[in-house]
Amino acid sequence: MIPWLVFLGAGTNAAADGTTNDDPFAEIREEREARSADEEATPALAAEPVADDPGLGLELIGRLGASDRNAEPVLSGGLGLDLFRRVVTDSGTWGSFEAQVRLVWDKLQSPNFEVHNLFLEKRFLFGRLNLVLGHFQVPFNLEALPIDTHTTLIQLGNRRALGLKHDWGAGLRGQLAAIDYDLAYSLGSGMRFDLDTRGMATGRLGWTSAADTLGLGLSAIGGERQVATTLREAGEPVTGWRVGADLFYRILFMRLLAEASAGQDRGRRVLGLLVRLEGESYDDLWHAAMQYGVNESPAVHGPDPTHRVELEAALRLLLLSHGSFLRINVATHDQGGPWSLVGTAMLYLRFD
Amino acid sequence: MRSAPAVAILALALTALPPVRAMAIQGCTLRDPDRDIRRLFPEATDYRSFFIAVADRGGEDLQRKLAQRLGHALDPVYEAIDVPYAYYQVLEGKQIIGYVAGVNQKGRYGGIQLILAVDPRGQILSLYYQKLSTPERKQFIATGFTDQFKGLTLADFYYHAGYERLGLKRKEDRVAAIAAPADSDAARHDFAATLRGVMKDLILLDLFWLEDRNGPVFDEVQRIVEQKGAGR
Questions:
Q1: What is the pLDDT of residue A156?
Q2: What is the CATH number of the domain that holds A203?
Q3: How many structural domains is chain B composed of?
Q4: Which residues of A touch B164 (CB under 8 A)?
Q5: CB contact under 8 A, B226 and A29
Q6: Closest CA–CA distance from residue B21 to any residue of chain A (Å)
């Protein structure tokens, strides 16, 4: 029991209507006002940080996937390092460094080292201009927004629509008045550092309403990139271009996300569409999402694009015992044959 | 099933890990800090951001102090000891001209995210809702309501708590002068949540950044309340 609550509602020398001329705290007020006047003449200077987010996390991931096409469930694991370090000086924030790398394995393949994010970002002009160097998300459609898809819920569309999500390169991003811009030139090799491809240019212009309830974006991409069926292997070089449009709309605890893209790969038409509805509890204990996607994907092993329709639902529950979560995904897709059903349960533990 | 032993081994390995502090619920961060801070402090030249948890700065003792000063029990989930609260120290050159800090607060229809901009002495310069789900949202975000918080300090909340405990109505009670922006049950609930959230935000700012400058006010108010209570 909080001691001073003992006196809650106790009677006083107040008049019947509760008003009184006797301010019991007048003396404290006077003392404080005098102190404040003294302090006003001595402005504080920024010193070295007294504390900061250590920004270093260790991730442990266990995943069990089952499909009606496979006889047995597949177990896979991952050990990841997630480092985010902001560099601050006595006059502001110089920039930041981010690294998200993982060692992943499953019973079908040998352990593999994956680089997700690995970049340095230098700030200029109070965030109006930022230079990014390294391995980062290609700024195309919704993937350019600060939506965390690193193990959370459902992946967005760039892996399917472009054949890659991250790439090695350099970028400029920032804000011009109400517009967010994000431009990049990258190798087009995805997770692998490979100078054999001519590379690609990507850009997105975005606008978000003041209350952050509505966001709109326009994107474009062009050049040569490698398209692989998995993150691990070298891809086939594909020359092509895309234009895209995306939006989000927030209402109460729900958010609607949508993106569409159209263009050509090797001279053949490719289209993509994604619609997602997601929501979360006020305290972040659960997140849920449903996503529908259609893709005429870039060709990997043949001249013709493949057509894929996908419907996926996901639920993420925070596990308080370790501050980690359990995620369950159920997806069904059709890629020219009978519909396939896939279920995945993932346990994600993070230690900071 | 051949993978069953592997599942069991993985599960055992994961649960046998040492109980390292894990980041659970995130504190309230600004959605667009560059733009938000330029808007809140037009004279700012840059800012520095920090994430501080009660566990890092005083542990259980500090958590108890926070609850005591707030006058309410803390939620074990979203006000847990390891929640990293975000702070933006706003600079003009090398001089600190203010802080921006936000808190999560449970509202009637979901989470509320309250953002405060304060001067270097902890006086509120502005308050806004980064997230608020209620049918009366327009009344809450209207400057006619939020501007009433301008100029308040943590000391005003400590005085207000003292007046309430003593059952006094005083014109000096600047917090009591703020009225709920609408008259429904939900609005009253979210208004109370707003007052609690603002007070919590100010207490944390005071403890983390302002060297507990309002701590003596709390102690004095408590002493006076106890004295007057004992005198009756």
A1: 86
A2: 2.40.160.10
A3: 1
A4: 8
A5: no
A6: 6
Give B68-124 pLDDT, tens digit per residue: 999 989 988 778 898 889 999 999 999 999 999 999 888 888 788 999 999 999 999
Judging contacts by C-beta atoms under 8 Å, the chain B residues touching residue A91 are 45-46, 91, 93-94
- For residue A30, what is the enclosing H or E element? helix A26-40
**β-bridge mates for residue A263, sequence order:** A242, A270
Pick out chain A residues at pLDDT < 50: 1-18, 50-51
Q: Report the mean per-residue pLDDT for chain B.
A: 86
The pair of three-digit structure tokens given for residue B151, joined into one six-digit string: 């100029």
Highest mean pLDDT of the ranges A31-45, B10-24, B212-226: B212-226
- Give a yes or no: residue A290 inside a domain: yes
Instruction: Kindly state whether A209 is in contact with chain B, defined as any CB-CB distance less than 8 angstroms.
Output: no
The ipTM of this complex is 0.77
* Residue length of chain A: 352
For A201, A283, B97, B139, the CA distances from B186, given in Å and listed in that order, are 50, 19, 36, 12
Q: Give start and end residues of each alpha helix (H) in A53-120.
A: none
Query: Rounded CA gap, A226 and A132, in Å?
Result: 22
Q: Is A162 in a helix, a strand, or coil?
A: coil
Same domain, A159 and A261: yes
Contacts of B121 in chain A (CB under 8 A): 36, 39-40
- pLDDT (tens digit per residue) in A40-92: 656 566 665 544 555 778 889 999 998 887 778 889 999 999 898 888 888 89
Average pLDDT estimate for B190-199: 96
Cβ of A107 and B3 within 8 Å? yes
Domain around A4:
1-41
Q: Do A189 and A236 touch, CB atoms closer than 8 A?
A: no
Least Cα separation, residue A234 to chain B (angstroms) = 29
R_g over Cα of chain A: 26
Are A126 and A271 within one domain? Answer: yes
Q: How many angstroms separate the CA atoms of B202 and B56, rounded?
A: 18
Q: Select the residue of B44, B155, B172 nearest A23 (Cβ to Cβ).
A: B172
**Does residue A112 fall inside a structural domain?**
yes
Q: Which domain holds residue B191?
A: 21-230
CA A281, CA A301: separation in Å to the nearest integer?
A: 43
Closest residue of chain B to A323, computed from CA coordinates: B24
Question: Nearest 5°: phi and psi at A232?
Answer: -85, -30
DSSP string, A198-220: -EEEEEEEEEE-TTSSEEEEEEE
pTM: 0.82
Give me the helices (H) in B44-184, please.
Answer: 54-57, 59-70, 137-141, 143-146, 154-166
CA dist B161 → A18, A86, A101, B115 (Å): 15, 39, 50, 22
Contact A341, A333 (CB under 8 A): no
Output the DSSP codes for A266-304: TTEEEEEEEEEEEEE-TTSSEEEEEEEEEEEEPPSSSSS
Which residues in chain A are closer than 8 Å to B168, comparing Cβ atoms? 12, 14, 18, 20, 24
Q: Is residue A23 assigned to a domain?
A: yes
Which residues of A, range 156-175, sit inside 8 Å of B by Cβ?
A: 175
The answer to whether residues A10 and A125 belong to one domain is: no
Question: Can you say whether the dihedral through the CA atoms of A126, A130, A135, A141 is positive or negative?
Answer: positive
